Automatic annotation (TrEMBL), chains A, B:
Gene3D superfamilies: 3.30.70.260, Dihydrodipicolinate Reductase, domain 2, NAD(P)-binding Rossmann-like Domain. GO terms for biological process: methionine biosynthetic process; threonine biosynthetic process. This is Homoserine dehydrogenase. It holds the Pfam family NAD_binding_3. PROSITE patterns: ACT, HOMOSER_DHGENASE. It is an enzyme of class 1 (oxidoreductase). The keyword Transferase does not apply. Its EC number is 1.1.1.3. Belongs to the homoserine dehydrogenase family.
Amino acid sequence: MKELKVGLLGFGTIGTGVVKLLQQNAEVIRNRLGAPVRLLKIADLDIETDRGVKLEEGLLTADAEQVLSNPEIDVVIELIGGYEPARSFVLKAIANGKHVVTANKALLAVHGEEIFAAAADKGVEVMFEASVGGGIPIITSLKENLGANRFQSIFGILNGTCNYILTRMTNEGEEFAAVLKDAQQAGYAEADPTFDIEGIDTAHKLALLVSLCFGTRVDFKQIYAEGISSITSLDIQFARQFGYKIKLLAIGKMHDNGSIEARVHPTMIPEHYPLADVDGVFNAVRVTGDFVGPVMQYGLGAGMNATASAVVGDVMSLARSGRGNGEPRSYGYGCRPDALQELPLRSMDDICSQYYLRFTTVDQPGVLAAISGKLGEYRISIASMIQPERRDDGAVPIVIMTHEAAEKDMRAALAEIDQLQIVQSPSHLIRIEGSLD
Amino acid sequence: MKELKVGLLGFGTIGTGVVKLLQQNAEVIRNRLGAPVRLLKIADLDIETDRGVKLEEGLLTADAEQVLSNPEIDVVIELIGGYEPARSFVLKAIANGKHVVTANKALLAVHGEEIFAAAADKGVEVMFEASVGGGIPIITSLKENLGANRFQSIFGILNGTCNYILTRMTNEGEEFAAVLKDAQQAGYAEADPTFDIEGIDTAHKLALLVSLCFGTRVDFKQIYAEGISSITSLDIQFARQFGYKIKLLAIGKMHDNGSIEARVHPTMIPEHYPLADVDGVFNAVRVTGDFVGPVMQYGLGAGMNATASAVVGDVMSLARSGRGNGEPRSYGYGCRPDALQELPLRSMDDICSQYYLRFTTVDQPGVLAAISGKLGEYRISIASMIQPERRDDGAVPIVIMTHEAAEKDMRAALAEIDQLQIVQSPSHLIRIEGSLD
């Protein structure tokens, strides 16, 4: 096996992790591959900041062309993030016959088809293990090891920021706003945390996973994404009383009629599931295939080192594959482009779920009858209920767990209930996944 | 990509699963690969039994040579199990230039070096994802995705029979013998369960994992293996009082001085770890690398379908790799043969651990002082203790959790304690792993 030469675009946190890993573990990598991986060039607009790694003279440049058009470079690692110039750079690298390794889920969720098609035309690979779940090898597992399965469902905890916040709210009884502030100070949340806490980052990742699992195109904009900013510690406490934990879950499902679900929202899952014990900045994915059954993977979902591990793992895979014969080892979406389907995505109206509902009502007779009556009108049946003691302000929380119901009916019922005089503030709804298969 | 032609040796449970999978999911496999996988020949001594799958005329033969020496066959799948004739057949397939896919951990744990060397000489691959953890893609993860890491430790629940028995003992308070009998009737345990319950199967798998993680030869016979037959439901209950669950754990560790640990025994792990929630016939592996941090994978550890998924996943990987260029995609132990080390394996005497100890004593003053005195003589310090009420027979159980101590000291102390007049039956010892990194 011959030396593999790589160029790096983007020398931020993850890029620095990749350089450190290639330096510190050069011997490990050479022993596992039988040949070294050599970093030929790093391009970043900022060539001044000290990243704490020692570089050979001339390695760092502000000119991306020195990576993209360097005839010696076999593999371009894209760690710029975002849509542009990442998209143009990746397309140029492909056009120049280079394999690409990227951690950029936003880019692939939105421009994946264009990029994968360009790679297939050129006979090069686009590897993106680092784009979902950090160090968790879920992309390779779906494309390769579990590739003989028809997948039924995939569930993921894919955003470390959200999981960190929910974990602290769960363990410490703190409210969302306070924990978010702490997380920002500790570096676990961005100054503008919208992408993370509103579920957009998770939806980017889910778009990729759903395409890989079900062999279908997914329009990222059609994925329902609801974040965690409305979760209260009160809901977390009630969930525990029923034996559940609340996680921001990415959910993908394949139905017998060939329609699929792809949605992101806070979800109550039974606390005895291993997925419920995935705490802090950890990520996890659970996928169920027709032969393999359920498989779960768990690891650090982000961070310099775990992401670098996934990036370099992809580089090593490229070193092993039959590079240069013009035949890519695998397809972008893990499936022949002409076999990629256009499976219909169910609208949220048409999904069925169990629900956790929390109402804030006045303390007077007939309240429960009024609420349960409205639910009944929409064929929503109650599985269990908690009505704790009245609070100081005279408001009474009523918590109801329903049997499975249609989202359309649930929303209609809640709209009517929220109009009732006895209801003091808008009702809270959290979907429940009682079984993860 | 061209059609891949495979031959199958062994048409038992797993073999039948492979045939079913190749038939039922032929389209999925073709779409993911871009080319079909075609089964050309199946060899088994029993060509009469109906396995419930329909085969083309002439596919099944009692003559292994029709697989091994068939010039059309690219890949030989070995699912015979055991040492011979599996070893001879695998070596012959390699000599004939065929890639090999096997689920045979016993074969590789004992004859792996010979087999991998033969494959390297011939430029063919030996794939064995199915040999450890059934459908869990741990082998590929260690060799490829996480391959840039130096691994610090690996922990595995690798035997479904043992985990099923321990789970039922935990959930139902039943004793080992009763649950084993049930498990045998339900088909979760063999008529002769020794290999499983005494930890030998787990040790076979650990030998492979340790070689892959640490890049070292391991003499399987040197691995300490202690099974679960002496675990009582009383120990399980006490463990829970301290916040632990008992699992049969395979443990591999790398020490800073380059020595390694490889041991299999019942182990108490904190119940809030995801690994502690791995119940029933599920398997799980947790590995920690210097960059990726901890990664856990979880899935069905055995059974026709999950194992078949792993076997066919390996076949698909071979279809993707640069077959035919005489350069294998990866090394058997995931590391250049000349870089494979001879790291010293620590003897059990030299390991350090926390311990759970249960003594059965007479009910009289001074008992605790005598026991704790003996422990103190050997520098073993007590972390916590439970002494429940005396039992009907007058015996008093005393349960002690120790701080970290040397195994050598612990055994010496217990030998002396068991000689004391006040001790009524041999003391029970279970090792504790309080942190899995």
